[in-house]
Give the backbone structure.
Amino acid sequence: MKKYSLLLFDLDDTLLDNASWFNIGLARTLEIHPATSTVDPLIFLEQVLQPPKSILESFIRREMSPDAFKKARWKNALSHSDIAFDEALIEEIDALFIETSMKYISTNESITSLLIDLLKNYNVAIVTNGLYDPRVKIQQMGLTEIFCNETIFHAERLGFRKPDPQLYEIALNHFGKAPTETLFIGDSWTHDVVGPMNAGMDAIWVNPKGKPQPTDHTPIAIVSDVTEIRRILLLEEEK
């Protein structure tokens, strides 16, 4: 597909299965730490992933820093588990979670092979929202030769979060590409389809659960797994 020369990928739940590291890593963290060893991990996970609306909205409006948001999520989950906590405990749990969860990220040969083949025909980069450093995830996935630090655009580090057009613009400017030369690939309708399309890019929606389209935006393709983009982007070259 010669129209595009730059591919921008989301990371979590696009190239990386979020449950493979977050859910398992959290359960193991709770098991290891003496303050949380008796906590029901499924209930705790629900509280972490569904913080009060006021906290989430404050973070989205940038009234709360990523670090403060992480701490607020831990506080909310600990409170619902009736665990006495202070700032030191929260920092301990967060540090243990990072150390533990990253061990559950591993290479995916299908993803690696796809990206290596794409790199022969396109520039590739990652544009991601994320509370935890995507560079560590990329290292654990064995993809550092494909995505160097300069091609991993981390929203929290740059000060803009998808779907803020300024975050997409930073990536485009780095490569010297126009929006019309760029294709965004990701699982979030808001962040990876609507945001990029409103910024002038095309998009491919990774939609494993077959969700209905919430708006009338039209991505060039809808796939159930990111590896399916091979037939869309490399078909001509592989003939």
